[in-house]
Amino acid sequence: MFKGLGYSLKQAIVQIFRNKGMTVASLFAITAMLLILGLFFFLTVNVNFITEEIKDQFDTIEVFLQDDQTEAQAEVIRNSLSQLQGVANVEYISKAQAMEEFKTRWGDNAYLLDGLASNPLPNSLRVTLENLEDGELVAEVSRSMSGVEDVRYYQTEVNKILRISEGIQKGALVVIAFLIIVSVVVVSNTVKLTVMARQEEIRIMKYVGATNWFIRGPLLLEGMFIGLIAALIALGCTWAIYARLMAAIGQQAVILLSTSLVETNFMMINLTWIYIALGISIGAFGSILSMRRFLQA
Amino acid sequence: MIIFDNITKRYGSKVALENATIHIDKGDFVFLVGPSGAGKSTFIKLILKEIEPDEGKLIVAGRDITHLSNREIPQLRRSLGVVFQDFRLLPNKTVFENVAFAMEVLHHKPRVIKRQVPQVLDLMGIGEAADKFPDELSGGEQQRVAIARAIINNPKVLIADEPTGNLDKDTAWEIMQLLNQVNLRGTTVVMVTHAFDIVERMGKREVEIESGQIIRDTKGGIAADV
Questions:
Q1: Are B157 and B79 in contact (CB under 8 A)?
Q2: Chain B residues in contact with A297 (beta carbon < 8 A)
Q3: What kind of fold does domain B26-37+78-223 have according to CATH?
């Protein structure tokens, strides 16, 4: 196979330019598939990211103290909470600290908080759970303690979110698998047209003693080239779209979902490899599939 | 060079060739004649390994090819050259490319290809047409290109399936002269034809097939053993 690599390369390039229509059709097909795939990848990765964030945030119970509680009284409550089963540690968060955290999380929008005349946030204790199963009980006990204003713990809500995100991820995987199959079929049909147009050539090649790999080589490379180019086009489009999307809603996401979206750079680095690998494989696989019938006998 | 030993080939219940036995020696020039559907094409297809015989033994170029794997077929075909009635040139390739293509298949270096293709084209009398495309040539010229392509790799056997079928009388005779030349250089030639005038004029060995049977095998008009 490698003996004829130079020949294959030359033929592949010549054919790509001679069959412009076919090339463009395949290119569009693969690019479109990769873009839709990218969309689902974007969705899955972000859902995954947000889920992890939520999990991190909700292995804690926020115990808000009444405003008249002194720091010494808070320390008493802190001690009794630390002794409860399933509690890893309890941290005292003053009003001022709480405000700082709030500002960091809001990032560029933090200036909105500057308008406040006084700090409306209460002092609080942040209970980190050792295991989530004990959460409900710890929350119950904290709620009944004197000096406690309110307790924030959303286990049922968290579970619901986790279940939904799991559903989204599974659904996305199914859609991605389906899309890959569809795109292989589309490409193989497009390449089949090329092969049919060259059936005579293939027949003559066989008469003069060409091996199947000699015939396959150029078409295979042709498919891979087209896949690669499609991947690059899809990458460009995705980058433009994602960067714009991040600029438009990236910051708002913090306020809406109380978490940020995955960074553009992280997304792009991963997508680059996924697109290139998938594009080339779809192109190659599509070509091989379409040639199978024509290479027999 | 080619030995058919009791070869039988059926398509379903229809017998295409039955107990065919024939020896073709190195350097022979053999005409395969007979009515359409008699089994001539089957004969050629068996040699080219497009089909497998149902019974018997088949030897081509010193090799038992009765059963070959898909991998071995290209190897066999490299020792054969084929010419067809409809030329089968690639329309989007020039004359030079059409012939060079057969050498590329065998991974010859571009330098070697550039040297040998013009030589063979000159030998076929179409050296001038190297840069033309097939549809710019006459039928006779196209067949010359096809013969050039068939012999460029020095095959041991040249198979010609009605090579003059699409040509006028004079052109057909020119093509026959070329095939004769190829034969004189040592290549065994097996030619299927309906043109009895040509067969007669050439005075070579004739094998007649009818209804799947070899009914006559004569050399220059004299009946030989069947």
A1: yes
A2: 50, 70
A3: Rossmann fold (3.40.50)
